[in-house]
Specification:
The complex is a heterodimer of chains A (367) and B (536). Chain A is of the alpha/beta class and 367 residues long. Chain A folds into 2 domains: 8-139, Arc Repressor Mutant, subunit A, CATH 1.10.10; 145-362, Dna Topoisomerase Vi A Subunit, Chain: A, domain 2, CATH 3.40.1360.10. Chain A has helices at residues 8-23, 66-84, 93-100, 115-129, 198-206, 209-213, 226-239, 251-262, 271-274, 288-291, 304-315, 322-334, 350-362; strands spanning 29-33, 40-43, 48-51, 55-59, 91-92, 138-139, 145-147, 150-154, 159-162, 171-172, 183-187, 191-195, 215-219, 243-246, 280-283, 300-301, 336-337. In chain A, helix 2 packs across helix 4. Chain B has 16 helices and 16 strands. Chain B has 536 residues and is α+β, with helices and mostly antiparallel strands. The chains are: A alpha/beta (367), B alpha+beta (536).
Chain lengths: 367, 536
């Protein structure tokens, strides 16, 4: 996908097309890529989830579309406005929601009732305009944290931050993490460890794991946001660092890994910037229970939701490699899952002193 | 073992038996005529008097004006006055009509009318007398300035009038008609089965009638909606199909015909010489037999033979249905509905009696809850709804097919009006509260209801489509302003112009553009719903 850095022309074209339809007394129709599983495919060559070419039609005279139709044009218009402001001003997607939220005259209905309504419309515009939220100067809440021997510069703020000298909170990964906003000054790390849980990240930071093992430790606090995924992507591509991912041994943890690795269905149009196909899965896996002699009583019984999701994972193309099929089948067979924190049952430092070092040393990865 | 002493002999017991008068019978069994409780008693008295007043005025072809007053004298004691503008009653007949049970002009004739047995009004007199000891007061004038006044009771043992007072006065007005005053026990209420409801329904089914009701809670006037009476019903001879052994026996005794064949052709409707000869032949009787010589065994043979002979149906033009105009005007004036429709079924025959069903459906507007209004010969039926053929027919209709919410009976804002008229309405009891469920009556009523429901359903689906369309238009219009503003920002085109263009495409929009199926017409509206009728 070619990135269009100034999408103003496309936004205008979107408006022109609608006006043209109206002038011809036609039902105006906005065409948008379908952002759903049915319109995504696994690009084997790039090992990424990509967006297909199916288009959906959002028309004014379709009662199910009218409100969304208005919202789409409102977001497009606001993006154009934001682009025309000074280049270094950004707006949060929550701000955008409030900017556009107003009561429709003569009704008790708002143009947008919740941020959950405006966020997907922004993604629609991104996908339709071949542009990115980041290029529209829209940012989300900062979510991810990084610690380790990496110095980054943020030109707009005229700062340099050494991520090894930021104490217990580490470096907060900005929502917009593009080369023009976040630059790598120096790095001494040899690999990147991405952990699902903030609690584990805290443990590894406190134990100076990154110092001992010369690495960066990142957490996205659950499913990592776009900024964190972009950071992982750039650390791998620009600094050539291997990426190791550590999550709970459950279907949700495995999916977090898969999103980091090959992108998500929802944001498949931007997988090449957010996905890191070379990422490796380090753990946990349910087989670790035997391998590391983890007490059975810290495992959690699978519930119906887990089993249903497991069946779905088994069907995703990107979970087809044999080791993954084996792991998910094994999980279903033993009927339990495992949280990262459960390793503390052996010893509070078991994860940083035994588990991770051994896994890394043995290169005991899943693809 | 001790033998039980014999206390009475058969002879002694026979000595105790005696004829009881019909009045004595009523004294003990007043519930049979509906006087089961004090609330209902007041209603029945009003009903009997009003029914008589309407029968009399209509028969005299006078537009009815009825004055009704119910006044509480003391706790559970009421004075009821009913005055009409009918032809009045000739002096000699007054005591017999009001003071004798089962004295009447209507029992032996076959003509559509409200009263049938000659029991109702004298029972009202008897009930008053039994509960308060007070006589009924009757004023009657046949016009010409003279008013006859009677105060009378009923001699229960003899079933004869007992005149308490009698006088004649000159009237200052040219009033003619009858006024009756009762003083009786009762309780006045204004609930579903009340005098008020009876008056209201009477006003609906008799929209050419004007009723003033001076009730304990105030004076109400039910104005007439039309100034003409329905056509007059005709009197007919009985149809032989419905005649049973006993009646035949009596008729044979009463006839002036000389031969059996001429008895059939003169005493019954629609029997010609051929049919008469046919009956005689099938019964194995000589057509020349003198009617008085026909034996009981012969009568049984005749009844059997009648069933084998092909009979012409009775004439049906003798009935007087209200007709669509009156049904609809009556419903409109009292209920102010949003929509009203009606169906008059062609006449049909049960057991040899012609009858006819009319259905009216009134929907929405002033109507807020479902109601069933049953009428027999224009008289509202307020009690025993569950036992009535009309109710059974209503529950037999699948209302939902017609887009009308229902749980057996409709549940929406709909009033169902059903009128059955006949020369002889088959009631389930003497209190005339429910129509008997003859299969053909059930069938005709159900067909009428279905036809009317189809018309209502067409109206409702049209309305739903219009509402649906209007709602769509409102939605499209609602989002036009913001859409136009956004387009102005994107393209520089002026928002006002864009709003106009949006309104234009919206106004030309067709339902197929809306992206969803418009509501279907109710299925029943598309194809006739002649579903199999349950014959039981």
């Amino acid at each position: 996908m070619t990135r269009i850095e100034d999408p103003r022309k496309d936004l205008r074209q979107l408006g022109d097309q609608v006006v043209k339809d109206l002038q011809a007394e036609k039902n105006p129709d906005i065409q948008l890529p379908v952002r759903a599983l049915s319109n995504t495919f696994f690009d084997e060559k790039h090992r990424l989830i990509k967006l297909g070419d199916k288009l959906s039609h959002r028309t004014y005279l379709n009662i199910a579309h009218t409100r969304k139709f208005m919202q789409t044009l409102m977001v497009a218009a606001e993006c154009k406005k934001l682009l025309e402001q000074k280049q270094n001003t950004t707006t949060s997607i929550r701000d955008l929601y409030y900017i556009l939220k107003r009561t429709i005259p003569g009704t008790d209905e708002n143009t947008f009732e919740e941020q959950e309504e405006s966020d997907p419309v922004i993604e629609d515009i991104e996908a339709a305009m071949n542009t990115l939220r980041e290029d529209l100067h829209l940012h989300a809440e900062q979510k991810g944290s990084l610690v380790g021997p990496l110095v980054v510069r943020e030109p707009k703020f005229e700062t340099e931050s050494d991520a090894s000298k930021l104490g217990s909170s580490g470096y907060g990964i900005p929502s917009i993490c593009e080369p023009d906003t976040v630059q790598f000054v120096s790095n001494e790390a040899e690999f990147v460890l991405v952990v699902e849980k903030d609690a584990v990240w805290q443990r590894l930071n406190e134990d100076r794991f990154w110092k001992k093992h010369k690495c960066l430790v990142i957490t996205g606090k659950g499913q990592p946001d776009r900024g964190t995924r972009r950071m992982i992507n750039r650390l791998h591509n620009e600094l050539k660092l291997p990426i190791y991912v550590v999550t709970d041994a459950d279907v949700w943890g495995y999916y977090i890994y898969s999103v980091i690795k090959q992108g998500s269905i929802n944001l498949s149009f931007v997988s090449d910037r957010l996905g890191t196909p070379d990422a490796r899965f380090l753990g946990l896996v349910t087989k670790d229970v035997e391998a590391f002699d983890i007490p059975k009583n810290v495992t959690i019984k699978l519930n119906e939701g887990d089993k249903k999701r497991a069946a779905e994972l088994l069907n995703y193309v990107w979970f087809k490699p044999k080791p993954w099929q084996d792991e998910i089948q094994h999980m279903l067979k033993v009927g339990y899952k495992l949280e990262l924190e459960s390793l503390s049952a052996k010893d509070i430092r078991f994860i940083s002193e035994k588990y991770l070092p051994k896994k890394i040393k043995d290169e005991d990865f899943l693809p | 073992m001790d033998a039980q002493p014999v206390t009475k002999t058969a002879e002694q017991m026979a000595g105790q038996a005696r004829v009881i008068s019909v009045s004595e019978f009523f004294e003990k069994n007043r519930h049979l005529l509906g006087y089961d409780n004090k609330i209902k008693a007041l209603l029945i008295i009003v009903k009997e008097a009003v029914d008589n007043a309407l029968d009399a005025t209509e028969e005299a072809r006078i537009l009815p004006e009825i004055y009704l007053k119910v006044e509480e004298l003391e706790k559970e004691k009421y004075k009821i006055i009913i005055r009409d503008n009918g032809p009045g009653i000739v002096k000699q007949q007054i005591p017999k009509i009001f003071g004798t049970l089962l004295y009447g002009s209507k029992f032996h004739r076959l003509k559509q009318s409200r009263g049938q047995q000659g029991l109702g009004i004298s029972c009202a007199v008897l009930y008053s007398q039994l509960t308060t000891g007070e006589p009924a007061e009757i004023l009657s004038s046949t016009g010409g300035g003279k008013v006859h006044r009677y105060k009378l009771k009923i001699d229960v043992k003899q079933n004869e009038p007992e005149i308490i007072e009698e006088s004649e006065t000159a009237s200052k007005t040219d009033w003619h008609g009858v006024q009756i005053t009762f003083i009786c026990e009762g309780i006045y209420r204004e609930h579903k089965q009340s005098i008020l409801e009876y008056v209201k329904q009477t006003a609906i089914a008799n929209p050419y009638c004007s009723i003033t009701f001076d009730s304990p809670s105030g004076k109400m006037v039910f104005k007439r909606a039309v100034d003409h009476l329905p056509k007059e019903p005709k009197e007919i001879q009985p149809h032989i199909e419905g005649v049973e052994v006993g009646i035949l026996s009596r008729m044979l005794g009463d006839t002036s015909a000389r031969t059996l064949a001429s008895f059939f052709t003169t005493e019954f409707t629609r029997i010609g010489k051929t049919t008469a000869a046919d009956i005689c032949q099938k019964a194995g009787l000589d057509p020349k037999t003198a009617p008085r010589r026909v034996t009981d065994q012969d009568i049984v043979k005749i009844v059997k033979a009648v069933k084998e002979v092909k009979l012409t149906k009775p004439p049906t033009d003798v009935l007087s249905p209200l007709g669509d105009e009156l049904v609809e005007k009556g419903l409109k004036k009292e209920l102010s509905p949003e929509f009203v429709t009606s169906i008059t079924r062609p006449p049909a025959v049960y057991r040899g009696w012609p009858f006819q069903v009319e259905v009216g459906l009134a929907f929405g507007g002033g109507i807020t809850e479902p109601a069933i209004m049953r009428f027999a010969n224009r008289v509202p039926l307020l009690y025993q709804q569950g036992d009535c053929a009309i109710t059974k027919s209503i529950t037999g209709v699948d209302w939902r097919r017609y887009g009308i919410e229902s749980d057996k009976l409709p549940t929406g804002p709909i009033s169902i009006f059903v009128h059955i008229c006949s020369v002889w309405v088959p009631f389930t009891s003497e209190s005339k509260e429910a129509v008997a469920s003859y299969p053909v009556i059930l069938k005709e009523t159900k067909l009428g209801l279905q036809e009317a429901a189809r018309k209502l359903s067409l109206y409702l689906s049209g309305k739903r489509r219009a509402e649906y369309q209007a709602e769509r238009m409102r939605i499209f219009d609602r989002y036009a302003g913001e859409t136009a503003k956004a387009l102005e920002e994107l393209t520089g085109e002026k928002a006002e112009g864009i709003v106009k263009m949006i309104r234009k495409i919206v106004s030309h929009a067709k339902p197929e553009d809306f992206g969803e199926e418009p509501p279907e017409q109710a299925k029943g509206a598309k194809k006739p719903a002649e579903d199999k009728h349950d014959e039981n």
